[in-house]
Amino acid sequence: MAAIRRHGGCVVDPLSASISDRLRADRPPQRLLVVSSQPCKTIKYLSGLGLGVAAVGVEWLDDCLKHGSLLDPKSYRLPAGYDGGRRFFLRKGASMAPLPARERALHGCRVHAGGDVVFVREMELLLMMSGATICKDLQSDPPPPLLFFFFPFW
Questions:
Q1: CATH for the 1-98 domain, from 3.30.565.10, 3.30.160.60, 3.40.228.10, 3.40.50.10190
Q2: pLDDT tens across 90-147, in order?
Q3: CA distance readout (Å), 116 to 34, 127, 138, 150, 151
Q4: Half-sphere exposure at residue 128, Cβ-oriented, CA atoms within 13 angstroms
Q5: Which of 2, 55, 133, 135 has its CA 20 to 30 A from that of 111?
Q6: Is 26 a residue whose pLDDT tops 60?
Q7: Pairing mode, strands 147-150 and 133-134
Q8: Is residue 122 within 8 Å of residue 76, measured between CB atoms?
């Protein structure tokens, strides 16, 4: 992470609602990537996919440092999910810029997350990154056009 900062990059750690607010601003970041050693099911990895940005391997960082320049991340992309029916990993659709909010998978959906405090906090962040509007109080919020409930299974 120090190398990223030293070369002018910004590390979003820990992931928080502030990044979601920055992405809604008038001028969201033009380049945003998820960097990981492998595809995973962490909130950070999934939030990046929800934003529509590419996930790349740490090898991309290593090679950028070796070459002294920002390399094209396309050949370093990690899978963006798995299609069980066709049995292959999905890579298309990801870019170096976040999708506009209106193009994200859950744009226009109003969602309520239920469960323990940690689960709700992480799930709400993931849902916001994917474009959803969070309904905190089902009694006072107007009925949404579409409502999902998420409860931890694991």
A1: 3.40.50.10190
A2: 555 455 566 677 777 788 888 888 788 888 888 888 888 888 888 877 666 666 555 6
A3: 27, 16, 17, 11, 8
A4: 20
A5: 55
A6: no
A7: unpaired
A8: no
Collapse the DSSP code of 46 into the 3-class scheme (helix H, G, I; strand E, B; otherwise coil) and give the result: helix
Joined together, the tokens standing for residue 41 give: 């099911």
Q: Which residue has the tokens 């009694």?
A: 139
Distance CA 8, CA 152 (A): 38
Q: State the span(s) of the chain assigned CATH 3.40.50.10190.
A: 1-98
Confidence at residue 59, expressed as pLDDT on a 0 to 100 scale: 93
Q: Closest by alpha carbon to 80, among 97, 98, 94, 95?
A: 94
Tell me, what amino acid is at 5? R
Instruction: Report the 10 Å Cβ neighbour count for 78.
Output: 23
Distances in Å between the Cα of 23 and the Cα atoms of 18, 63, 82, 113 are 9, 28, 26, 22
